[in-house]
């Protein structure tokens, strides 16, 4: 690190320490805050009987905008927890009763918990038939700056991995390999518990397969992040919250799932004693060998006569994943907390492909048949370690956080290709190895200070990334001996430094309006060594990235919000790595170490409303991305080898609408669905020729959940995606269905679930088409996806909900969840 960067980093840290800061890594803080709760019981004014499942909406004193809420349970009692200190009011409503408002509720450091007692509600003039209401926590939530999918409340989440969970999230599309798109764009930043992870650096799809589905608590989708968040991810941020709890006492859970696709299991334990909390967990997943098929056909008409290449065969794959994690947090006192966490992931994938190939080139009189077997083995190991300090103050909402994180991802990819040509008799044997490492060291400090009507947020961050790859190539010589081929080997190193600072101001005015504006500065320095040239890659740039959100709250919790932000997408190791994947010698692919970042301007208009048991959210959006990183396919005329790499190629404009709704159709039946409709306009240049591709795309999802008596429940989920446009064609589409049935047992401490995935077809069929001035290519892959899984879950341990005692204070709340609770809901 040069002297200049050292001085700049120290200056940023000293500035932030001087004004003191908040929320590590832009999302959720680790450790406690001063929180309180509001509780009470709702009864009928005439009968004094409890009113079950009434709606309780929480707002700031003197304001109508709801910032939190809950449902009373069957005995009329309710509890709103993890509330920041301040003055509140609650509005209680229930069909057939007049709304009840309780105001002047003060939560202070001396008395953070407020019991409002029994609240009597008067019947309205409307006479109603007797109904039975069955309530449960929401699976989908719309909040001030994000959409939340609560996976732990979805009964159809059983075996599988995080990619299976993301497939159920509105606005997201996850393909057969686990690659994620948000509103038609794959340039997304994925965080784990609010923090970037080195696991995502080399391969996002492989990283998602490392996380078992049963470990995912919720998924947050942030389509218009403020300047507080990293500018990475041109189309938005996805934050995966894992199940981490630390309640007074000892608790734990075990989860075992077995089915047609594999077996997985996990054990998690939490111990909280006084001011110290411990968490630990371990688990793994083993997938059974899966047999699929592949078809490929290409026409090459670059010469006088058209040549063709056709391939057909099958493949098998096995994936094993393991993880272990541990953490400690300590409440020094009521205002100070430190914590540290570490997690290790490891995954091994083995694949075997057998193909029959025919190559016909009438230009040289060639009609060749051959057989090819390729085996590949990918190993990844990742470790994330973080340490956090959090300081809260007596002033509600004022807090400072400083954090450090070290992450390392190491991968090894090996391809072994054996090819036998029938006539003339010839045998080919090639081996390629790629050893890659991605290291990241991050420091961040953040501060938030509330004034009367204004809230100030500021902070600084430094990221130091080092990427190295070592490629080896060996082949069979004329005597049949496997020997190194030095001229086809190369090493690659890539160093990136990002220094950032931001400021965000939130201002509430005219009672129903709020504006949140910010500016983020990022300075990036890149140096790379490629093909023996130490100065092959040298780049330095700085960016000022604004963001603004304006929100208007109407009566009955209706809201309208407009957002604008500017984002940047730096290429990751997946796009940069020059390693040549030659598992198919006629279709090779490799990264481009000279890629530049993308720049995106995003606009969004969002409207949400609630009426008669129905929630509706409608968002229109426009996104303009310059220097888009796209895959480009070209064909060598002399060898008929297709080469796929990545280039900063032109412009991507996307305009669309997203609609999400939920409807409580009956007392036991809930229906929710989402529709994404968008038009994609792509412009680029390939081999000196301008290329355009416009495409209308869609994503439809529907869920129906039914709650029976005696602890039974069931859910149906269906999804369909349209083909996705590229500059030269379309990537494949797919659809799937899932049915889940769940029974709670042992006084709700355990459950047994049956999940049936894709019952109507044994494979998911993925078809793609690509074309250019001199070629046309189609492919089809059948991935085995039908599965029946049985899952058993059991929770054990004893909880103590007594809050720790601190000198000079009564009971107080301690929030040890990494996810920061939201202050508002638009």
Description of the molecule:
The protein contains 5 helices and 48 strands. With 826 residues, it is mainly β. It has a 22-stranded antiparallel barrel. The longest helix has 17 residues, at 3-19.
State the major sheet: 22 strands, antiparallel, barrel
Mean pLDDT: 79
- Net shape: globular
Helix/strand-derived category reads: mainly beta
Count all strands and give the number.
Answer: 48
Radius of gyration (CA) equals 28 Å
Helical residues, percent: under 10%
Terminal CA distance: 43 Å
| Beta content | over 45%
Low-confidence stretches: 1-32, 125-136, 799-826
Number of helices: 5
What's the short story on this structure?
By secondary structure, the protein is mostly beta strands. Strand 31 (581-584) and strand 32 (587-589) form a beta hairpin. The protein is globular, with a radius of gyration of 28 Å.
What order do the helices and strands come in, and which of them pair?
Layout: H1 3-19, E1 34-44, E2 55-60, E3 66-71, E4 77-84, E5 86-93, E6 100-107, E7 113-121, E8 140-142, E9 147-149, H2 162-166, E10 172-174, E11 180-182, E12 189-192, E13 195-196, H3 199-202, H4 204-209, E14 216-222, E15 237-242, E16 249-259, E17 262-273, E18 276-287, E19 290-300, E20 307-331, E21 336-361, E22 366-392, E23 399-421, E24 426-450, E25 454-476, E26 482-484, E27 491-509, E28 513-530, E29 533-553, E30 559-569, H5 573-576, E31 581-584, E32 587-589, E33 598-611, E34 614-626, E35 629-635, E36 642-648, E37 651-664, E38 669-686, E39 689-707, E40 712-721, E41 724-726, E42 729-731, E43 735-745, E44 750-757, E45 763-772, E46 775-784, E47 787-799, E48 813-814
Parallel strand pairs: 1-7, 12-15, 32-36
Antiparallel strand pairs: 1-4, 1-48, 2-3, 2-5, 5-6, 8-9, 9-14, 10-11, 12-13, 14-15, 16-17, 16-47, 17-18, 18-20, 19-20, 19-46, 20-21, 21-22, 22-23, 23-24, 24-25, 25-26, 25-27, 27-28, 28-29, 29-30, 30-33, 31-32, 33-34, 34-37, 35-36, 37-38, 38-39, 39-40, 40-43, 41-42, 42-45, 43-44, 44-47, 45-46
């Amino acid at each position: 690190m040069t002297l200049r960067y050292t001085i700049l980093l120290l200056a940023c840290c000293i500035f932030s320490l001087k004004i003191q800061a908040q929320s590590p890594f832009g999302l959720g803080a680790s450790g406690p805050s001063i929180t309180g709760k509001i509780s009470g019981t709702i009864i009928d004014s005439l009968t004094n009987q409890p009113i079950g499942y009434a709606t309780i909406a929480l707002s700031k004193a003197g304001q109508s905008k709801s910032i939190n809420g809950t449902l009373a349970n069957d005995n009329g009692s309710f509890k709103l927890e993890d509330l920041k200190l301040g003055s509140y009011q609650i509005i209680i409503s229930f069909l057939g009763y007049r709304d009840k408002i309780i105001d002047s509720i003060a939560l202070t450091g001396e008395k953070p918990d407020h019991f409002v007692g029994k609240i009597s509600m008067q019947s309205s003039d409307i006479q109603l038939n007797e109904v039975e209401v069955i309530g449960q926590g929401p699976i989908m939530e719309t909040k001030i700056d994000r959409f939340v999918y609560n996976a732990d409340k979805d009964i159809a989440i059983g075996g599988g991995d995080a990619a299976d969970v993301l497939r159920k999230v509105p606005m997201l599309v996850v393909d057969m390999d686990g690659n994620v798109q948000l509103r038609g764009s794959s340039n997304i930043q994925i965080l784990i518990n609010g923090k970037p992870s080195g696991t995502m650096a080399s391969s996002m799809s492989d990283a998602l397969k490392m996380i078992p589905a049963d470990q995912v608590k919720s998924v947050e989708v942030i389509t218009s992040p403020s300047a507080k968040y990293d500018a990475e991810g041109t189309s938005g941020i996805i934050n995966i919250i894992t199940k981490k709890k630390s309640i007074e006492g000892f608790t734990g859970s075990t989860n075992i799932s077995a089915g047609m696709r594999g077996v997985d299991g996990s054990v998690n334990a939490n111990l909280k004693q006084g001011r110290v909390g411990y968490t630990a967990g371990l688990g793994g997943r083993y997938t059974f060998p899966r047999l699929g098929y592949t078809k490929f056909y290409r026409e090459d008409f670059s010469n006088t006569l058209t040549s063709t290449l056709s391939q057909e065969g099958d493949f098998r794959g096995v994936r094993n994943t393991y993880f272990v994690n541990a953490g400690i947090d300590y409440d020094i006192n009521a205002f100070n907390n430190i914590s540290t966490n570490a997690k290790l992931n490891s995954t091994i994938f083995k694949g075997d492909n057998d193909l029959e190939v025919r190559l016909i080139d009438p230009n040289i009189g060639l009609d060749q048949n051959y057989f090819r077997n390729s085996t590949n083995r990918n190993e990844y190991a990742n470790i994330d370690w973080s340490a956090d300090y959090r300081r809260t103050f007596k002033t509600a909402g004022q807090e400072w956080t400083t954090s450090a994180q070290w992450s390392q991802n190491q991968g090894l990819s090996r391809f072994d290709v054996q090819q036998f040509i029938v006539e003339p008799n010839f045998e080919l044997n090639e081996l390629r190895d790629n050893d890659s490492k991605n290291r990241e060291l991050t420091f961040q400090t953040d501060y938030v200070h509330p004034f009367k009507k204004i809230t100030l947020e500021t902070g600084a961050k430094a990221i130091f990334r080092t990427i190295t790859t070592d490629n080896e190539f060996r082949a069979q010589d004329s005597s049949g001996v496997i020997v190194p081929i030095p001229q086809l080997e190369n090493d690659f190193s890539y160093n990136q430094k990002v220094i950032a600072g931001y400021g965000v101001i939130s201002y509430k005015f005219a009672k129903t309006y709020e504006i949140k504006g910010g500016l983020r500065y990022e300075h990036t320095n890149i140096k790379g060594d490629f093909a023996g040239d130490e100065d092959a890659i040298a780049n330095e740039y700085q960016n000022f990235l604004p963001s603004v959100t304006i929100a208007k709250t109407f009566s009955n919790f209706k809201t309208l919000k407009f957002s604008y932000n500017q984002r940047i997408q730096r290429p990751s190791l997946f796009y940069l790595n020059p390693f040549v994947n030659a598992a198919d010698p006629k279709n090779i692919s490799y990264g481009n170490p000279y890629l530049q970042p993308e720049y995106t301007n995003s606009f969004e208009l969002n409207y949400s409303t609630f009426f008669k048991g129905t929630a509706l959210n409608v968002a229109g959006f426009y996104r303009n991305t310059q220097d888009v990183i796209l895959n480009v396919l070209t064909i060598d005329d002399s060898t008929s080898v297709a080469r796929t790499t990545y280039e900063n190629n032109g412009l991507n404009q996307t305009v669309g609408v997203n609609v999400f709704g939920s409807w409580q159709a009956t007392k036991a039946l809930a229906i929710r669905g989402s529709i994404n409709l968008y038009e994609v306009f792509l412009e680029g240049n390939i081999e000196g020729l301008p290329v355009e591709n416009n495409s209308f795309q869609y994503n439809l999802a529907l869920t129906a959940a039914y709650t029976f008596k005696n602890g039974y429940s069931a859910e149906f989920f269906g999804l369909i995606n349209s083909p996705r446009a590229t500059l030269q064609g379309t990537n494949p589409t797919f659809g799937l269905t899932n049915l889940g049935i769940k029974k709670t047992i042992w006084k709700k401490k355990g459950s047994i679930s049956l999940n049936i995935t894709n019952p109507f077809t044994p494979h998911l069929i993925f078809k793609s088409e690509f074309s250019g001035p001199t070629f046309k290519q189609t492919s089809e892959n059948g991935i085995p996806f039908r599965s029946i899984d049985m899952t058993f879950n059991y929770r054990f341990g004893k909880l103590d909900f007594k809050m720790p005692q601190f000198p000079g204070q009564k009971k107080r709340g301690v929030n040890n969840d990494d996810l920061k609770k939201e202050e508002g809901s638009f």
